[in-house]
Amino acid sequence: MLFATSEVHPFSKTGGLGDVSGALPHALATLGHEVLVVTPWYRTLRGGARPLWIGDVQVPFAGGFEAAGVGTLESGHVRYAFVGHADYQRDDLYGYSDDVRRFARFTRAVPQVAARLGFRPDVLHAHDWHTGYLPMVLAHGWHLPDGFPGLPSVFTVHNVQYQGTSGLAEALWWLRLPGALADDYMNHFGSANAMQAALGFAHHVTTVSPTYAHEVQRPEFGYGLDGTFRHVRGKLSGILNGLDTHEWDPAADAHLPRPFDRRDLTGKADAKRALTAALGLDHERPLLGVVSRLADQKGIDLVVQAGERLVAQGWALALLGSGDAGLERDVRALAARHHGSVAAVVGFDEALAHLIYAGSDALAVPSRFEPCGLSQMIAMRYGTLPVARDTGGLHDTIDHQRTGFLFEHATPEGLLWATGLARAAYGGSSWPGMVDTAMRQDFSWEASAGRYAELYRTVVASAR
Ligand code: ADP
Ligand code: GLC
Hints:
The chain is of the alpha/beta class. Helix content is about 40%, strand content about 20%. It has two domains: about 1-240 and about 445-464, 3-Layer(aba) Sandwich (Rossmann fold), CATH 3.40.50.2000; about 250-445, Glycogen Phosphorylase B (Rossmann fold, 3-Layer(aba) Sandwich), CATH 3.40.50.2000. The strands form three sheets. A nine-stranded mixed sheet has the order 3-4-5-2-1-6-7-11-12, with helices on both faces. Ligand 2 binds near residues 17, 158, 241, 370 and 373.
């Protein structure tokens, strides 16, 4: 199985896509699949990764052929191939005006790189818009290596808000595709749209939770593609993400002062002490954590607007996030106004994230939409009850008043209603039972990896 992704933990990560790309291939390898993960060779590769450079491939791109470097490494029965090019030698993974071109190049490199490694997949699994053109390239692209034309594909939608749009003519030119395709699925009201091309050309489309598969068919969630989702619903399904339960394990987490499990929560109290000391927070208050990208999707503006009233409810707040400059300013300002009861750290900080999941009593996840969401699952595993919007994967993973608290309205009042319930329960007789139930949930990849494996089999069989 060939797995194409724009980020993969531990080498690169901006959010949950990195977690999923890190964990799912291992779970599939455990089931006996041979997996090659192809991803860009970013300048900022982390985790001490040193791929072995094995040479160049000639990538069909922008009307000709251009060289790209290939690096490989192997870890836990999964093979990784890194695509090297000046395009990926930048400070950040994304956020550049030429992103669509950068990932069109990556897309086009994937089959050549796999072939260079002698890898003959029976199925491709691509993720989000960055690799969205791969199914179309496999169906119609010129200069594909032997064994790749017509390769069956599964495409997973992690977030429909980001679609990879550009001009039609330039996208076809970059990807080296016949001009007639300009009238096909890639065309979304006159623009080229990588996500829609994937919805059209992939043999099967999944979303990262069952509820999100329904939501994307509605205008409020579809970001202009709801009609396309309805059109392809015969090949659309939702498979819930799992968690890397080794990476996220309170009983063996090197970032914590002391490990803990549900039978002995002393280590959790230690984590809270360490966290409140590090952030200068009042240790006596119940602690509400936030670990999030600061983007409109995540509803962190609701936390900011409710800030005063959350403190009045009795909470201390520990916020970690980065992204939107306005939201970064807002969370910093909230913390400045509430010294000792609100702390905000702006940045991407793996170690602090672990400590917040472990040391908080509750985690706020007020997302406007949430395709799956991993932070609520991590929180539950660490005995921290999520207070979350009732949408997407949050709906599918949290049981209201059993493993967390769900609210319906994406308003400060909606959030405050749920934090009020949590605040009333905190310290009472129901809280320890909820924590125990949350910690006993099974969020491992085992079941979901099996569902993907079954899907690959179906897709391969029906393509024959
Ligand atoms: P999304 O992918 O939409 O950002 P998820 O909940 O699926 O949301 O995954 C987010 C992942 O990124 C989690 O592993 C979370 O811990 C991590 N994360 C988000 N923001 C930060 C941050 N500022 N520092 C460290 N980790 C972060
Ligand atoms: C996206 C979604 C998030 C999901 C993650 C991994 O980033 O926003 O909900 O958990 O992908 O699938």
